[in-house]
Amino acid sequence: MFARLTFAFGSPEFRMRWGRKTQRFYVNARAIIEREHAGTREVLLQQRAKPGEPRTMELPGGQLDLFEGITQALAREVREETGLTVTAFLDDLNRTHTVTPGAEVECLTPAFVYQTLRGPVDSVGFFFRVQATGELIRQGDHAQGHVWLPFPQVRRQLDHDPAHFNWLTQAALRHLFAHAWREQATRHTCPDTSDTNMAG
């Protein structure tokens, strides 16, 4: 049996139809916002503040809008949830931009991707390690209680009290720590200037 994949117009979600069953499928962009403070590498976390959901800690990010670029969605979600402006990517995006008579396509390399194999929502998403500037807001879009925490403290809390973080943030942090992300990263300003435009 083949699935028919449709995009709900005006909605940031896909709907996969298996026969008569409709399944919602979400596509996300997520930010690991880092900074150096007092000689320590820190990451920004926030508390989920959506009605009916646990008040766990999470990394900023959310769903893509229709035909919205992944990095544009990332910057928008960070701004809406934290008040900060993404200024640099800490990993090379290797971005290319292709325009043909029938389509416009961007290809890039995130820090890593995730896929939900089982859980409350069916989703895939792209994580980016970034830097951001500005003033944190007290209450963002379904987000509050923003806090900068040293990576070693986050790792200890993840080991001893994983339920402090939501399920997706647990997975992202475990991936980050498991692969011993390099301490010193090259900054790539935002927007990335290495785009290669190709017409076909």
UniProtKB/TrEMBL annotation:
Coiled-coil portions: none
Tagged with keyword DNA damage: no
InterPro entries in alphabetical order: NUDIX_hydrolase-like_dom_sf, NUDIX_hydrolase_CS, NUDIX_hydrolase_dom
GO molecular function terms noted in the UniProt entry: hydrolase activity
Protein name in the entry: Phosphohydrolase
Organism whose genome encodes this protein: Deinococcus arcticus
Nudix hydrolase domain sequence ranges: 24-175
Keywords: Hydrolase
Stored Pfam families: NUDIX (PF00293)
UniProt key word Cytoplasm: no
Source taxon at top rank: Bacteria
